[in-house]
Sequence to fold (442 residues):
Amino acid sequence: MVFDPTAQRGHLAKRVSILDAAANVFCREGFSGANIDMIAAEAGVSRQTVYNHHGDKANLFVAVVREITERANAGVFATLATFPDQPRDLEADLVQFAMRLNRNCMCNRDGKFLRKLIQTEGERYPELFEAWRSDGPGKTWAALAARFARLAHAGYLEMDDPDVAARQFLALVNADLHMSLMLGTTPTDEEVASAATNAVRTFLRAYGRRPQATAASSPAP
Amino acid sequence: MVFDPTAQRGHLAKRVSILDAAANVFCREGFSGANIDMIAAEAGVSRQTVYNHHGDKANLFVAVVREITERANAGVFATLATFPDQPRDLEADLVQFAMRLNRNCMCNRDGKFLRKLIQTEGERYPELFEAWRSDGPGKTWAALAARFARLAHAGYLEMDDPDVAARQFLALVNADLHMSLMLGTTPTDEEVASAATNAVRTFLRAYGRRPQATAASSPAP
DNA sequence: AGAAAATTAGACAGTCTTGTCTAAATTGTC
DNA sequence: GACAATTTAGACAAGACTGTCTAATTTTCT
Fold:
């Protein structure tokens, strides 16, 4: 029984090993450029085993995208849960949050993979990435917007449209890493820190409360 | 004499036709996915002619990237030349500028092509895209930063680091188009306009002069 | 019109890749 | 240790693609 997901323990190891290798190869080579032998070799498995587990190449690709999408979304929401709802030092707390966002969601392997794959194969498999689109960025933006709206309601921020603010926050956080993210290289800790600092400073200049224009002291909640 | 660039007039038509078709196909299919027959057919030319003009596939790819890079950079600098150095209405003028930037540089065919190709093949041909990197974004950022610095010096803006501000301006301008740009779809005029408006409003909240915090009247130059 | 250059269609060998199949070896379970 | 499931190496056919070659045709220039 080949496709039974409750297979023996050893199988599961091979299964994840294959998905892992396939993710790497698809990401490096794109769908057409990837070949099954490469994936099998990188997974330390025979080619036939790959076919046993996932059928054909397109099937394997879909499985990989689903897997990574799920993992990436989980990571995003875990990071979102660390949003500073009751900030002691708003600027410092947001900087820390921005750094976590970059490290755990944008710059890791899953983030790089999804970015690349969506751009290369997004037009070829629209239904596949529709799931990513609605579950990933869609929910992320909404959730982040809700957090900002709460901060604004508590008097920490001033904004008209929390949805726009959320998108802009994410855009600012990536502004300085744009080049690294494009080329797929992993930015250093210094780059991530500096990107987060610049982003939050500007974000608070735009959305911080007017009285504390320089954004130093925290207001009463 | 096949490779003579000063060939007859009719050749030039075929040459650009091939480059054009190749750009489309490489962009759609990626390097491995593209095949020469497809390119020849789309160019309305026989396969042999493609080989006559550009040698092999890798060579053709390089020629295409160089061509598009050059054209895209020209477009960027043409748009940059329309920067509002002496704004009558700073907000409105910057919105118009942002819209031009998006339409002429980010959302057109060349912008889409480069974004996609750099992300897919950037690691495979680092030397090729190094030229894009230093001539394109590198100079764009610097030039835009210089414009902002001049506006700040003239009293229209307040900023510490014009380089950061320039990067953030571009990031904000793309914030709302992120999804379209990822998937390669062309945003509507309304989307472009709204993206530019949101971006400039926030940019001016952060970098506009404090007295005119709502950014309505223009200060004396 | 006539010569030179370029283009075309088609065939072609060589290579690579996919997906299947088989028989042998390995693994895990009872 | 025996049995069942899984994995493995390798062969294999079918198809696709690259890059070359040739002979015929078209275009371009004089």
